[in-house]
Amino acid sequence: MAPERLRGAPASRNDSMVRTLHDADLDLSEDERFQRREWVVQRTAWVLAALVLTGAGAGLLGDGPVSDGRVARGGVVVEYERVGRRERPMSVQIHLPPMTGGTGGVVAADLLGAYFEHAAIESVSPRPAREEAIAGGVRYLLDAQSGEGGMVTIRLRPQGAGQRSGEVRVGAERLEISMFVYP
User: pLDDT value at position 85?
Assistant: First the structure.
């Protein structure tokens, strides 16, 4: 006696993964290949969601430890945000080394490159003694006291999305910075 086939079961070998089961008034169709593919897609989506959430928590999408940048050279330290959003205020802090000799003077801080060209500079604190346009950027002339360091905070608002790099020059020191601006 031949084995009894389930009613509605596939007759060909290619369709052997699809089965229809009948139990009283309940008709169920199963496609094991489809289920396995669905499970793989589902697990992949869970992993991707977990990676995005982990990255967001770390600061890849904004505030967080990964988004904070810091470069130092010759006593000058620049702290800045590596990740920002278009039209969202950001800040760049420049820590100046103590001045030597004399009774004080003027320190020039140059802000150059796309980091600053594609941003509206809203404020500079403390207020610079003078501001000058220079090739590729702006120069702030800051009053300095002999024997004291200082910190300059620049508040800016990025105007466009994309990768931006720039340079902060204080005296002979050149410090490269970059950021990515989300739309």
Answer: 85
